[in-house]
Amino acid sequence: MRRLPKPKESLGVQLVLAILGFCLVFTVLTVAVRTWWAWQAGVAAMSAELTLIEQVYRRTLSKAIWEMDRESLETHLASAAKVPSVGRVALTITPAHRAPEVIDRRQEGWVASGVAPARRLVLAYEPFPGSSETLGELLLFGDERVLWSRLGEEVSAIVTTQIIQSLLLASLILLVFRRSVTVHVRRIANHLGQLTPVTLGQRLSLDRPGHRDDELSLLVAGVNQLQDNLSDYLEQQQRYESELAQHRDRLADLVRERTAELEALAAAQQLVLTLSNRLIHAPYDAFDKHLLGCLREVAQRLGATMAAWYVRDDATGGYALYLHWQAAGAVPSSHLQRVAADDWQQLQAVLDRDELVDTPSRAALAQTIGAGEAARVADWGIEAAAFTELRGGDEHFGLLMFGKPQAVVAWQPDERALLAMTAQMLVHSVRHKTQLIDIVQGQQALRAVNAQLAELARSDALTGLANRRHFDEAKELEFRRGQRLQQPLSLLVCDIDHFKLYNDTYGHARGDECLLAVAEAIRSSVRRAGDLVARIGGKEFAILLSATDEAAALALAERILGSVRDAAIAHAGSDEGPFVTLSIGLAVSTSQRANDFDALFRAADAALYRAKAGGRNRVVAAAPVASEAALDPHQPSDKEEMR
Ligand SMILES: Nc1nc2c(ncn2[C@@H]2O[C@H](COP(=O)(O)OP(=O)(O)OP(=O)(O)O)[C@@H](O)[C@H]2O)c(=O)[nH]1
């Protein structure tokens, strides 16, 4: 506890100085007044003394003048002049018939003064009763110096008295002030200086005899009142602080709870996002497997041991189990594969109102979905369950059910959020999957149509064989491949004999049927998958046989002729017989024989020409195609005629 330093100045000293100052002024005034009074008294006293002298010397001086006793006169005047208050004695004798005589006696150094009193006495003598004679006059002058001397003594006495009086008064006041005020003021100051919140209860009391009711008592009461007020205030402050601390702690707890909740919510969001991504990228033929994986992960995050996805069973109006997951060790369910329409009516009604229904215990479950259904669900080995509908707009994708093996206080907000988000995510994913399947199926259909169109663009409309365009695309490729692999490429060019005549005989429509039958005969003769049969003109067909030598090509050509023959297409106007026949030109290309496909084609065409010229219904093989020069460019070509 820090003690207060001793003050450099003292109230008592200040009080004394003030009193002394006052005493000084008072003394000066008192001295002035009393000096005035002393002066007046001095003057009066001197005047009285002069009167007394006058009384004393009147008769003796009158008698001495009467008797002309000069010696006695001198003696009395000298005696009167020696009186201290008398400065000058002047006796004027006025005898009859004589000149007046003045006898003057004065104190040494006396000067005439306007302030010292003076007396004038007429001297007379009564030689006998009833007669009086004036003898002269006596002048008595007071000595001013005596006045001043007496005043000085008086003043010094007054001043001394006043000073002593003032000092005594001041000392007394100082003493009394110190004993009755200063000591207590210091005590109060020390008390206040040592006050702390802990010592506020210590009351101030002054060590004073008797019961006093003065300003100090008032001050002490005020200090004690102040301490009481401060004490109350501090108590209140402490109460507020403690309440504030409690609020702060509660707030910190709330913040902690909210933070944990938000973190759990963020984790739930993250999980749903991950699952959503997984479903988006899942191949749609494995979509259900991924859906089941989602149910499992959500259930595990919830601490659930089972998850089920029910879908509406349109046939019965109830629900059918679509996906189902159970934790290892959980009691497997034989129930609840199907739920009758009436069984979950109560649950459905609740779900129509609230999107999510959670029950923390079996009893709550019974209240929510009915005792019977709760018992069935309980058979699954669960105590707490949550249900949520999978609904998007007007579409209904069923409902989800998660179960925990133990009752809980309540499903937590983050768990409810996870359930809601999972339901939404599954609805979106299923919708997405449905849209995806529609798109894929659309693409497949489009691809099929495109393929069909492409096929049509490369097919002959009448016979379904490859058309000229297809043939032209394929010929160069096959030719180059044969060259590259050093394999022979054979080309058969087939032409129906006397087809004009056929048309003329049977009509154009029958001509088309004939073309179709011939094409079928050719197609059935060609068995190797790599061989290409094309209709390259009105009644002209080309067969491209890769990796086929001349012998094999000749055999195929003969087989074709046979097939056409076997088809027995009546041709009444033909010179060759009763049925439609073919003429075939054959050319074989090897790397040594031909430089390009056109040369091969021209060779086959030339062979066909020769087959026609040779009587039709036959195969003619071209001479080996060695070079361009080997062909006779001037020889007319059947093909050219056709075109
Ligand atoms: N019905 C039908 N006739 C066709 C088609 N394309 C071509 N023709 C006919 O085929 C005939 C070809 O006659 P020509 O070139 O004289 O030959 P040809 O009568 O068969 O005589 P050779 O070839 O010498 O045996 C013409 O009458 C064409 O109108 C077709 O797609 N359908």
Automatic annotation (TrEMBL):
<feature type="domain" description="HAMP">
    <location>
        <begin position="179"/>
        <end position="235"/>
    </location>
</feature>
<feature type="transmembrane region" description="Helical">
    <location>
        <begin position="155"/>
        <end position="177"/>
    </location>
</feature>
<feature type="transmembrane region" description="Helical">
    <location>
        <begin position="12"/>
        <end position="37"/>
    </location>
</feature>
<dbReference type="Pfam" id="PF00990">
    <property type="entry name" value="GGDEF"/>
</dbReference>
<dbReference type="InterPro" id="IPR003660">
    <property type="entry name" value="HAMP_dom"/>
</dbReference>
<protein>
    <recommendedName>
        <fullName>diguanylate cyclase</fullName>
        <ecNumber>2.7.7.65</ecNumber>
    </recommendedName>
</protein>
<keyword id="KW-1133">Transmembrane helix</keyword>
<feature type="domain" description="GGDEF">
    <location>
        <begin position="487"/>
        <end position="624"/>
    </location>
</feature>
<dbReference type="InterPro" id="IPR029787">
    <property type="entry name" value="Nucleotide_cyclase"/>
</dbReference>
<dbReference type="InterPro" id="IPR050469">
    <property type="entry name" value="Diguanylate_Cyclase"/>
</dbReference>
<feature type="coiled-coil region">
    <location>
        <begin position="223"/>
        <end position="257"/>
    </location>
</feature>
<keyword id="KW-0472">Membrane</keyword>
<keyword id="KW-0812">Transmembrane</keyword>
<dbReference type="InterPro" id="IPR000160">
    <property type="entry name" value="GGDEF_dom"/>
</dbReference>
<keyword id="KW-0175">Coiled coil</keyword>
<dbReference type="InterPro" id="IPR043128">
    <property type="entry name" value="Rev_trsase/Diguanyl_cyclase"/>
</dbReference>
